[in-house]
Amino acid sequence: MAHRYSRRKKTPYVFWSQLLAGSIVLFPLSMSRLDFRAVFSHGLSVAAHRASPAYAAFEDIKENYEDTLALPDRSGEMIVLGERFELKSVESFPRQRHIALKGLTMKAPPPEVYPVRAEQPILLAAQSAVRFPKRPVTPVPESSYHVDPRDDAWSISMASSPRRTITAASGTPILIARGDMPSAANTPNYIDEPSETFVTNLSAVTGDPDAARPMWLNGQIEMTGGLAFVGPETQLLVKRVLNGATQESGRIWVTEGRFEIHVKKATGYLVAELFTRDGRVLGRGELNLLHLRDISTSENRINDLRIALRPTTDTASIRAVSDTMPVNAPASLRQARVEIESYTEPTGVNDDGYFSEPSLDRDSTFVARTSAPGKWSSLVVGQAGQPQDVRVLSNSLVEALVQLNLEGTDRAEAMQMGIVWGQIQRDAKAVSGAQVELAGEYQPIYFNDAFLPDKNMKATGKNGLFAFLRVRPGVQALRVKSSGLLYPAQVFPTENKHVSYLELELRNKVVSQFRVLDVLAADRPVQARIRLVGTDKILPLNGDQYVEYSVAGSGFMVEAEAGPEYEVSRTTLSGSPQRVHVPVVRREWLRGLVMDTGISVHPAHGIVVGFIDDQDFEVEMTGAVPQDQMSIVYFDAQGKPLPGKSGVAGGGFAIFNAPVGLQTVFVHPLQARGNFSQVVVAEPEYVHVLAWPAN
């Protein structure tokens, strides 16, 4: 190439021809599981005497992982000390990489015995621990995680092989028990610890009491994102919405972009919509009336309100664009192919670079992969109701970033691993002075005014760009600190040779009506404590309550803790929802499902629960392999398990032994053609509850 970057000629113009194009990419993500036994890339020497606890624990690994880790067996022993061997990668499931130990060497130590002094037997666990900050870690059980439903305390009982006892040289008995732990690469670390000088915006708010009276509301409607009014083919509507129901409608003067509406109370939301004659919504905007403050009691009219309409769609819609300069409009990438993972095959885009999937409900979330010749593939967690651009970055652009920041063998390694690359914005403008944190031992790269990586920068520059290199495959969590505020975590997957791009739009004063409810008694609110995952501030809730909070990006997770009767619940949300329902699940009811169905529950996996109100349905979930022993239980409106393999209207489902990590749940209605999907994060310590649309 004539303009290939050279380390001797670090001109910003040449570099940017390869690098700058990634400045406006929208959250491409990628997903892959990494077996937690795959952390060794070089030879490992282990010294162990046959009578030592370490050797006994390692011997037990053979029993734990005999299905995927085959070790040489000679002379009746698990392994002959001193023998060198290599185990190659195993592909047991599409896009799941099970990488075994490479170059493991066992060397016999000198015949030296270290006595163990203890009055009680010692329990060894041949496994590694996974850290969950700010939450108590479940003790490693003395079993293979088989739950005995007859035990009221959910005790752990021995499943297949009983515990074994060996005796150390000192005479101390040593217990050996089997056990499994989730893959560390698939379990996100949310960085929940507080951050000095940065605070979390999470607080209860109340409206102005003077707004609870009749008045006139006037203002402007603005079209954004390419929306346009085209005469009789489209119509505009403005209305007040409260608790999901339309209260009043107003008038719009299209030529002036002006609206007027008379409301009984200035509470709820002002909603404006642009739709076709057949009712298809093209654009939507809303204004939370809770933000109205200092209303004069002598006035019955509020002027100068503004509602911005943004494009919307009833289907999953993605446009593939190329890596052009930030000052230019993104160019459609006609050679791209897009697939919704576990749902569609790779499909070519149209002449405008668009891909759409009309069979997904507008409230669905999904994982989509976009690829093109000569490019690194991009993945994005998409929202069906929000059309989005996905930038696909060229190989030379990625190579330029790696060469500027790494040297030697690190470069080659980085080109085989994942990259996180993104931009922080507010009101569609780049944010300077923001800091990003990625869970784990990763250091951010920031870009100067010439769009070159600058190792001396400690925060984003005027372009708002950042990057992380050599990111391991799995589920990651990133949070933003800006202007004294700490934003909740963005959870996303990374995959080898993929760019995970996060376009993070900072919103400081989002207001939603929160309710924590029992999934079997949705009409009665539950008193609970909530927090935004990735932050440490906790807010008590009792009944319906308006909550103001800050978010970065389109997705976030809410956690609810409602006391010892309920499991800790997590719900994934997106956008700026008017109402947020955070369901919680009674432990006694969940225990009853296990007892009635005879399922063996593995606490190293996750549990996902959801309810479907309007029709019968079937459910499937991505990411599971036979070893997970995933089970789907359907139940009726009273929570009683159903005998068949489908659910009924008003009932729901519970997925036991869900594979840990970022997965997609697909709900297929039996009386309609559309499908509903939602991306969830399954974890051992929480019940993830699907957030059905509350608006």
Explained architecture:
With 695 residues, the protein is mainly beta. Among the domains are: 212 residues, Immunoglobulin-like (Sandwich); 145 residues, no CATH class; 86 residues, Immunoglobulin-like. It contains 5 helices and 50 strands. Strands 11, 21, 22, 24, 25, 27, 28, 30, 31, 32, 36, 37, 40 and 43 form a 14-stranded mixed beta sheet that branches. An 8-stranded mixed beta sheet has the order 14-13-17-18-19-12-16-15, with no helix packed on it. Strand 24 and strand 25 form a beta hairpin. Helix 1 packs across helix 3. 39% of the residues are buried.
SSE layout:
Elements: H1 12-19, E1 33-34, E2 44-47, H2 53-64, E3 90-93, E4 96-98, E5 104-107, E6 122-125, E7 146-147, E8 156-157, E9 164-167, E10 173-177, E11 202-205, E12 215-223, E13 234-242, E14 245-249, E15 251-253, E16 258-263, E17 269-276, E18 281-288, E19 301-311, E20 316-322, E21 337-340, E22 347-348, E23 354-357, E24 365-371, E25 377-383, E26 388-392, H3 395-405, H4 409-414, E27 418-426, E28 429-430, E29 435-438, E30 445-447, E31 453-454, E32 465-471, E33 474-482, E34 485-486, E35 490-494, E36 498-518, E37 521-525, E38 528-532, E39 539-541, E40 545-552, E41 555-561, E42 569-574, E43 579-584, H5 587-597, E44 606-611, E45 617-621, E46 631-635, E47 652-658, E48 661-669, E49 676-682, E50 687-689
Helix pairs in contact: 1-3
Provide a brief overview of the structure:
The protein contains five helices and 50 strands.
Supply database-style keywords.
695 residues, mainly beta, Immunoglobulin-like, 14-stranded mixed sheet, eight-stranded mixed sheet, 5 helices, 7% helix, globular, disordered N terminus
